[in-house]
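Final report, Chapter 2: Outcomes

The project's central promise was a pipeline that accepts a single protein chain and returns its three-dimensional structure in a standardized token representation, suitable for archiving and comparison. That pipeline is now operational. To close this chapter, we reproduce one record exactly as it appears in the project archive, with the input sequence first and the structure output second.
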Amino acid sequence: MFDILKAILFGIVEGLTEWLPISSTGHLILVEQFVHMDVSAAFMEMFRVVIQLGAIMAVVVLYFHKLNPFSPKKTQIQRKETFSLWEKVIVSLVPLIPILPFNDKIDKAFYNYKVVALMLIVYGVLFIVVENRNRNHVPSICSVKQIGYKQALIIGLFQALALIPGTSRSGATILGAILIGLSRETAAEFSFFLAIPTMFGASLLKLIKFGTAYTSSEVIILLTAVVVSFLVSIVAIRFLMGYVKKHNFKPFGYYRIVLGALVLLYFMAIVH
């Protein structure tokens, strides 16, 4: 029973932090210090990735019409634009291809509080700097259909940087998109779409690696976290899309800096 409640907490944290540019890893590494489930280390390694499936499904549900090229409600031109959107998503995945085989090694090398804290702070500063620079800047791309293949590839390069824990996949892609002229709303939306194949692929690889050696309680724990992550992600995505219409990302930058400092102080206190 207690592990179910803990799974709910993990699902809430994942659902909130996956889409806001504040690093789900940074938050999960803190939660894991205080919340311990009665599961194996191998299950926990798989769990923290696979609970993203709930978050992905939230994007699919919220944007199903926009992402579905076969919708009977779409005109021929709209279907063509939807296929073009998916082509751009695929182009954005190209920078990940040579790096994915080393994903586990990257995790082992960089999944520690020092790297996570540093990335939280660095990208927090970058958000503030970029928003200050763009204070009077008018974005040149204000809808996903205006994104070109070159821009999609550049955003994909920023997404590849997010393999370093603490960076935040949404944070890196949104920041990169804003830098090349996308509006905040368009940057956030395209970041959501990129997450579908990226996070689904990462989850599938973890599931295959873990195999089928589940206990009944582990299955319940995983499903609970996935469902909670889905429900919370619906709220988080709607909040972010409403927020960016009127506000910038500087508050998230300040939040990242504070969180990064807290992570450093907390773990340094434990070590010493």
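Archive annotation: The CA atoms of residues 20 and 215 lie 33 Å apart.
This record, like all others produced under the grant, will remain available to the consortium after the project formally closes.
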